[in-house]
Design brief:
With 186 residues, the protein is α/β, with parallel strands linked by helices. The chain is built from 7 helices and 8 strands; from the N terminus they run E-E-E-H-E-H-E-H-E-H-H-E-H-H-E.
Length: 186
């Protein structure tokens, strides 16, 4: 194995605010804050330090409504300070917060396992979310991991890579059906 040569998989470009990733674009450095997102002042200060260090994309967690609602003020302060850093809301447990954050941020990370229990419920929540993201130009990231597989996927596949793959593909199929391509997977 030669670690100095590699081949990139061909992907579609995805716009995250002023940053474009994928396709033939350069790899973009991303970091994540360790501040309480509801602490607007501390979050803005840390994002600015991260941006000054060279990261064009910064993620913040949003466990609840208070954090989700803080994104508007955080982005407004950053833009007022002259920063164009792409801001990403990392939604953990409450998928409704994704819609709150999508109004303000450049990308929203959702977790399929926490989104809804049945396929019909997923569609009922996810399709309006995609429409909101289209309206605001907000990218999404579908982030799956073993610890967040929904009960339906666990029942069918167990705690397996196949379950994680199918969980992600289920959401990607809806994105494709809704002609939403501004999506990243992980």
């Amino acid at each position: 194995m030669n670690i100095t040569t590699f081949t990139r998989r061909q992907t579609l470009p995805v716009r995250i605010g002023g940053v474009v990733i994928g396709g033939d674009n350069a790899i973009a450095v991303q970091s994540m804050t360790n501040t309480a997102t509801a602490d607007i002042e501390a979050s803005v200060e840390q994002i600015e330090r991260i941006a000054d260090a060279g990261a064009p994309i910064v993620r913040l967690t949003a466990q609840g409504k208070r954090e989700g609602e803080a994104f508007g003020a955080i982005v407004e302060r950053l833009r007022g300070d002259g920063y164009t850093t792409a801001v990403v809301a990392d939604i953990h447990f409450v998928p409704e917060i994704a819609s709150i954050a999508a109004d303000a941020v450049d990308k929203v990370r959702i977790n399929p396992g926490n989104y809804a229990a049945t396929y019909d419920e997923i569609r009922a929540k996810f399709i309006p979310f995609l429409a909101l993201c289209k309206q605001h130009g907000t990218a999404i990231r579908i982030g799956v991991n073993h610890g967040s597989l929904g009960a339906r996927m666990m029942d069918k596949y167990g705690d397996t890579p196949e379950g994680m793959t199918e969980s992600c593909l289920e959401f990607l199929r809806i994105c494709q059906e809704q002609d939403f391509n501004n999506v990243v997977i992980s």
